[in-house]
Design goal:
Low-confidence stretches of chain A: none
Low-confidence stretches of chain B: none
Order of helices and strands of chain A: HHHHHHHHH
Structural class of chain A: mainly alpha
Mean pLDDT of chain B: 93
Number of strands of chain B: 0
Largest sheet of chain B: none
Helix content of chain A: 55-70%
Shape of chain A: globular
Order of helices and strands of chain B: HHHHHHHHH
Radius of gyration of chain A: 17 Å
Number of domains of chain A: 2
CATH superfamily of the largest domain in chain A: RNA polymerase sigma factor, region 2, helix turn helix motif
Oligomer: heterodimer
Radius of gyration of chain B: 20 Å
Shape of chain B: elongated
Largest interface: A-B, 51 and 31 residues
Largest sheet of chain A: none
Distance between the termini of chain A: 36 Å
Number of strands of chain A: 0
Structural class of chain B: mainly alpha
Helix content of chain B: over 70%
């Protein structure tokens, strides 16, 4: 557990230094832990656990957009779990429940816990359709078609800089729509 | 969209680095300060006897209190802009201005006074104080909330209230140079009411706009 969290901290430091591959690995590594915790939270609240993936995606978006609030000298896990807990409470509250979420929901996941395959969720996909066309196209190209920023730029006759801007704006407004829905 | 696709998209956006919350907060406050100063100079202005007033330690004490409030609230609000932070261990910073004020009141009590205590407490400018401080604080509060929005506070209402303290502290620092009531009793009463009002507005608005 300790080792796992040290590894996350190291990956996040590399990510902030500009290493996108490390960032990708980090997000892949934390997702099963977040998913297990979201399921546990939903189950405890008497909610169907099949909504857990919406919560996982919510958490990942928040982690991404708020990662500058992480102090690179502090361990990564407490910061991550604080965001996850906040998002889980939000999700349960939106479903009309006032729930006590235990922080241990996140910490107690064992390293060996079945790392599940990826799963789909509806809310991010639905909000994606409400974005301005340019942002939606760019996001879809990178997410669904697995295109690089360079390929996406060529496909839509945009500069790479414009693709990056559209990508970031798209992710930000997606998150704002999810929050304010 | 499945989660792997989302992760891939987030990783593609890794190059985008947001500016630190503290920097955005400072820039926003600097941008809003001229608005508050304009309000101050067009409607109130510095008191004419400021040169003599500066020799009165209780005049100077007002600035110590309000600046201590502004500085400690800035530190606390930056701390609270992190998702894993709580007031615990940090909230005592907010007691610093209160401590200075209490010291000032005891100091004044020990000195012979020409005016009775109630007269000093009620003062001449209580209404001006209670309206001018919140009015001048509002542009600063908007700026502070904008800056803190870049963060991820666990308790948006608390962070909003501290943003209110911060902006009231700055506004009160400016207002103190106009006000001719220098008794710490006056400050403890009317500045506090004005500050509490701004903190309440900050909490209400913060609860909405500081969610992430």
């Amino acid at each position: 557990m300790r080792e796992r969290e040290d590894e996350w901290t190291g990956l996040m430091r590399s990510a902030i230094a500009g290493d996108s591959a490390a960032y990708h690995r980090l997000l892949k590594a934390v997702t099963p832990v977040l998913r297990a915790a979201a399921r546990r939270g939903l189950a405890r609240a008497g909610q169907p656990v099949d909504q857990s993936e919406d919560i996982v995606q919510d958490i990942l978006l928040a982690v991404h957009l708020k990662r500058h609030t992480w102090d690179a000298n502090a361990p990564f896990a407490p910061w991550l779990f604080a965001i996850a807990r906040n998002k889980l409470i939000d999700a349960l509250r939106r479903r009309g429940r006032r729930i006590f979420v235990n922080i241990d929901d996140f910490a107690e996941v064992l390293p060996g816990e079945a790392a599940e395959e990826t799963a789909s969720a509806g809310e991010v996909a639905a909000q994606l359709q409400t974005l301005p066309a340019r942002q939606r196209d760019v996001l879809q190209s990178i997410a669904v078609d697995n295109a690089s920023i360079k390929d996406t730029a060529a496909k839509f006759s945009m500069t790479e800089g414009a693709v990056r801007v559209a990508l970031h704006r798209g992710l930000s407004s997606l998150t704002a729509k999810l929050r304010d829905r | 969209m499945d989660t792997d696709q989302l992760i891939r998209t987030l990783a593609a956006d890794n190059a985008h680095q947001s500016r630190p919350v503290g920097l955005v907060l400072m820039l926003a406050l600097l941008a809003a300060a001229p608005v508050s100063l304009l309000m101050f100079f067009s409607e109130l202005g510095i008191r004419p006897d400021v040169m003599t007033a500066m020799r009165n330690p209780f005049f100077d004490l007002k600035f110590a209190v309000t600046l201590a409030l502004a500085i400690s609230a800035t530190a606390v609000s930056l701390h609270l802009s992190r998702p894993e932070a709580s007031l615990r261990g940090f909230g005592w910073w907010l007691l610093v201005p209160a401590g200075i004020l209490v010291a000032g009141i005891s100091g004044e009590m020990m000195m012979p006074q020409r005016t009775p205590m109630m007269t000093r407490l009620v003062g001449k400018n209580s209404m001006a104080c209670m309206t001018a401080i919140p009015e001048m604080a509002l542009p600063l509060l908007a700026a502070a909330l904008y800056g803190l929005r870049q963060g991820a506070p666990a308790r948006p209402a608390v962070a909003g209230a501290v943003a209110g303290l911060l902006s009231a502290g700055l506004a009160a620092t400016v207002y103190a140079s106009h006000c001719t009531d220098d008794s710490p009793l006056f400050v403890a009463t009317w500045y506090t009411i004005a500050t509490a009002l701004v903190a309440a507005i900050g909490a209400l608005v913060g609860a909405k706009v500081l969610r992430y």
